[in-house]
Amino acid sequence: MVRAVEKVRQRLLRSTAVLEKAGVPYAVVGGYAVAAWMARVDIAAVRNTQDVDLLVWRNDFDRAKASLEAAGFVHRRTRDVDMFLDEAGASARDAVRLVMAGEKVNDNYVSPAPDITKSQRGEQFQVLALEPLVEMKLNSWRDKDRTHLRDLIDIGLIDDSWPARFPAELGQRLQNLLDTPEG
User: Which among 27, 10, 3 is positioned nearest to 129, based on CA atoms?
Assistant: First the structure.
């Protein structure tokens, strides 16, 4: 188990270092961004995640792809998702996924992925600011996204003032979680 967690962490550090060296703007999003925010408040509340999600601009994709491939990552495109595997034949679970800033991840999302400039430097990498990260989780709305949101609520990073910050549909989703945190 420790080896699996460390493998994901190394993938995160390796991929972000590659993009920084290439001068490609990025922000860590997804489960690792939630973990980074959680760790600021309660390290014991941090959950592990199996993949790495990075926000990049569409016009930087070719540079990001070339840089990641030069560092040994293997590009695969599946169901409109660009991912970079540790090696040929690796599972899609062992991937760095690129999310395009300013574009909807899915057609049924209420809002597009945020601007990369809405991020800040963490200890080792650039991480998306909390409010746009919460909006991404509200858009995606899978069970694991709701779990991440409940975790953020539980440690006090999200409170009753937050639903008003988002488009009505997303604000209502968050209000429902605040009202019924146990589901």
Answer: 27
